[in-house]
Amino acid sequence: MKSVVDMDPDVARRLFEEGAFLVLLGVPQGTELGIDCKSWRVGPRFKGVKMIPPGLHFLHYCPAYPPSQGGEVGPKTGLFLTLKPREILLASWNPQEEDLDFSASQDEEEVSRTRANLRDLDPFLGPYPYEVMRKWVSLTDRLSQELVDNLQPLSGRVCAFSDIIPETEFRYTKDRAEQPRNDTACQSMKEGLDRLPRMKQREGTELRFSVIPQKTYPPGATPAEITKCSLDLSYALETVLEKNYTVQPLNLLGELQFAFVCFLIGNVYEGFEYWKRLLALLCRSEEAMRKRKELYLGLIAVLYHQLGEIPPDFFVDIVSQNNFLTSTLQDFFQFASGPGIDGTLRKRAEKFKAHLTKKFRWDFDADLDDCAPMVVELPEGFTLE
């Protein structure tokens, strides 16, 4: 962590006066714990984080296992917190659940006692890593606690691995008797798969993203309308907005940010899959682009910061599968240069296209038939401003 000594004195004084406190007791040494875009290994003196800027934050941690159990860290768990100025949140580590228990924060006497004891606690509290604050805000400026509450699991925990249980509990002999026998060799792969118990995600642990309709056209659509709605996904996009964000359409960008943070920081692959689907829906909605200028100006800003945080080799390994990102953005830039598009949006899209071409050397004007992003060979000494 960056020390208070290294921080700008005015910033340090303001955070000291207005910052919130996370007092985290009993976290095992070696646990990987972080807040927002920064993480570190917990040492023997660690008891929490101080000088946290008020607002929305993402606390995340991976439990550490002793050498007798391999000495590795477990899967990541995260939770979103909205902190008020000078607020104190108390939590203690539950070794059985391998999770933080925040029930002490509901005890006003305990909170008051901790506040009176802050001077003694101070040497054991690490300062918030202020150097990541600008990055964190750029990734979550459309995300509110209300939106988080609607999207995160009912359990309040965002987990890297799904908590799955059998669809049938097998509490009774009859249930077990109806299951396929496992005391003989399988004759085929299908038979082996059929013998496995059917699993489901534990209720309350699912991320609650908006449902993107599988059918992109209205009921009773003609073949011509089906073709049109398959090329221009505006009907499907408007369906999502009408169902979830009638009052605040730009909150859809907050959902895009939520999915991205869950993936990038929370290690939730489901977040990446949903981010891809929602991005494709937005980028391939030509009619919506003509009538929802503010939504698409906001989308460019959100994508600018998101793509700036992903390592370049990430695109080679994951995003470039089936050429998803380049083909999706190619459609977006094509629509953004079409008739009826607001002039400000058109210019912003052109600048964004030039920025990505320079940063990743992608050619959005070529036919994208290969699986890897197209590379632009720029003349020596030529730069795109």
Report on the structure:
By secondary structure, the chain is of the alpha+beta class. The chain has 3 domains: 4-140, Substrate Binding Domain Of DNAk, Chain A, domain 1, CATH 2.60.34.20; 164-181 and 188-201, no CATH class; 223-360, Aar2, C-terminal domain-like (Serine Threonine Protein Phosphatase 5, Tetratricopeptide repeat, Alpha Horseshoe). It is 42% helix and 14% strand. It contains 16 helices and 12 strands. It has helices at 9-18, 108-116, 118-121, 133-140, 145-151, 173-177, 189-195, 223-231, 234-244, 251-264, 269-283, 286-291, 293-309, 312-319, 324-336, 343-360; strands at residues 20-25, 32-35, 38-41, 48-52, 55-62, 77-83, 88-94, 99-101, 125-127, 158-159, 164-166, 199-201. The protein has a 5-stranded mixed β-sheet with strand order 8-7-1-4-9. The chain has a 5-stranded antiparallel β-sheet with strand order 3-2-5-6-10, with no helix packed on it. A two-stranded antiparallel ribbon has the order 11-12. Helix 10 (251-264) packs antiparallel against helix 11 (269-283) and helix 10 (251-264) packs parallel to helix 13 (293-309). It is globular. The model is unreliable at 370-379 (pLDDT under 50).
